[in-house]
Write a structure and sequence with these properties.
- Its EC number is 4.1.2.20, 4.1.2.52.
- It catalyses: D-glyceraldehyde + pyruvate = 2-dehydro-3-deoxy-L-galactonate.
- InterPro entries: Aldolase/citrate-lyase_domain (IPR005000), HpcH-HpaI_aldolase (IPR050251), Pyrv/PenolPyrv_kinase-like_dom (IPR015813), Pyrv_kinase-like_dom_sf (IPR040442).
- This is 2-dehydro-3-deoxyglucarate aldolase/4-hydroxy-2-oxoheptanedioate aldolase.
- Keywords: Lyase, Metal-binding.
- By secondary structure, the protein is α/β, with parallel strands linked by helices.
- The protein has one domain: Alpha-Beta Barrel (TIM Barrel), CATH 3.20.20.
- An 8-stranded parallel β-barrel has the order 1-2-3-4-5-6-7-8, surrounded by 7 helices.
- Helix 3 links the parallel strand 2 and strand 3.
- The longest helix has 17 residues.
Length: 270
């Protein structure tokens, strides 16, 4: 197996819409279980989960033994964070809260080693021995690493959506991703991604991305909403998260059992 063939890029080349989920538990065991469950891709969330790079390293190792393609969502569009994620073996990165083409260009540059002839100069720092190069055992790693990276740019505000075409045109932006939670908040409907104004913005983003041939993804809380998003034209979708699914099922079990657990008080003469 060629470790420099990006598995997420391969998923997008298939006929079916790739199905993913979010990893919020921050543990290798949960990540491995989700990877074995049948998801096509999984997002290791470093933005909203209190994990460090040692945790992320182990989670990527756990996912490496499963069929699911890992995606690392960085905490921010930051040169050092990007470098560290790549060095621990992340190949597909998601960049949160990108607002314009300049920020997208900086993100792409940080994923690339400096190479002659690149339209976007690379700013990634070089190290010879790390997990990404299989500890220096892949002899052509440095020469091929730039082509192995897949960059997903998140659009989470009306201002970012207004710049969709300009952001998508940046060389090295491989896909777009609408963040419906932050988008709903920035449209004045926090937590209500089903609001008609939010849905209209989500549908418009898919239409415009399709028009320029740029893959676009999204996450949603329920199968029904994901079906709606697929109908809008989204190319890859994620449902909920490991923690979200666990809590939803836990709440369902509790609601089903609690009434039958109530103690009855018998009255009478003792």
């Amino acid at each position: 197996m060629d470790i420099l063939n990006n598995p997420f890029r391969a998923l997008l080349a298939e006929a079916a819409v790739p199905l993913g989920s979010w990893l919020m538990a921050g543990t290798p065991v949960t990540a491995e279980a989700m990877g074995c469950a049948g998801f096509d891709w999984l997002v290791l969330d470093m933005e909203h989960v209190p994990i460090d790079y040692q945790d992320a390293y182990q989670i990527l190792q756990a996912l490496g033994g499963t069929p699911a393609a890992p995606v690392v969502r960085l905490a921010w569009n930051d040169l050092v964070q990007i470098k560290r994620a790549l060095d621990i073996g992340a190949q597909t990165l998601m960049f949160p809260f990108v607002e314009n083409a300049g920020e997208a260009r900086s993100a792409v540059a940080a994923t690339r080693y400096p190479m002659p002839g690149q339209a976007t100069p690379g700013t990634r720092g070089f190290a010879a021995v790390h997990r990404a190069s299989r500890y220096g055992t892949v002899p052509d790693y440095a020469a091929r690493a730039n082509g192995a990276v897949f960059s997903i740019i998140q659009l989470e505000t009306p201002a970012a959506l207004a710049q969709l075409e300009d952001i998508a045109a940046v060389e090295g932006v491989d896909a777009l991703f609408v963040g419906p939670g932050d988008l709903s908040a920035n449209l004045g409907h926090i937590g209500n991604i089903g609001h008609p104004q939010v849905q209209a913005a989500i549908a418009d983003a898919a239409r415009r991305a399709r028009a320029i041939g740029k893959p676009i993804g999204i996450v949603g809380p329920t199968p029904e909403m994901l079906q709606t998003f697929i109908g809008y034209g989204y190319d890859f979708v994620a449902i909920a998260s490991d923690m979200g699914m666990m809590m939803r099922q836990a709440n369902a079990f509790i609601a089903a059992l609690k009434p039958s657990l109530a103690k009855t008080v018998e009255t009478g003469v003792y």
